[in-house]
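Incident log, structure service

09:12 report received: a user says their structure output differs between two submissions of the same chain.
09:20 pulled the input from the user's history:
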Amino acid sequence: MNETKTDPRVLRTRKLIMDSFIELSDKKEFKDITVKDITTEAMINRATFYYHFQDIYDLLEKVLSEVLLINLDSDIYQDSVLSEETFVRIFKAITNFQKSLSNRCHRGYEDTIARIIREQLELIFYKMLVKQHSTHDEKALRVTAVMISWGIYGASVEWRRKSQTIDPEEFIISAIPYIMNGI
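09:34 re-ran on a clean worker, output below:
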């Protein structure tokens, strides 16, 4: 088995750029952050930035994906099955992620955030479904994963818009029996 390993310096530089971007996003809106701001904050040159990222939107997408994966702690779900506890943990992770972004990324980037959340959820749910139903049709499991991911994301948006006074667990718990057993 011949695996290529990424140079630790490349990983450190990539993390430095991402951390600089996160730091800047605490001070400025995304639309006001420039590549020059990031390179100055990270103390790197433009060529280094463009070695790691296509542009600032690519950086935004990569940062959001990594932060979401950390929030979801997707390694936990690799060995999980779809259960009430799993749905609650995922829902709480998604709502926490959305709350943490509410001050940083404004309305213009909701579509990007929504797509990233749904894609990550779809992967997690698909892996769990395959584990539980390995003899079933792959296409059907993929569609099911898409439906669950959109449903969980939609519920998190609804929670954010209307019910932030209710704990996310309390918000989702009443729907879980219907999700688990069908309508």
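09:41 both user submissions now match this output. Likely a transient worker issue. Closing.
09:42 reviewer note: The chain has ten helices and no strands. The chain has a mean pLDDT of 83.
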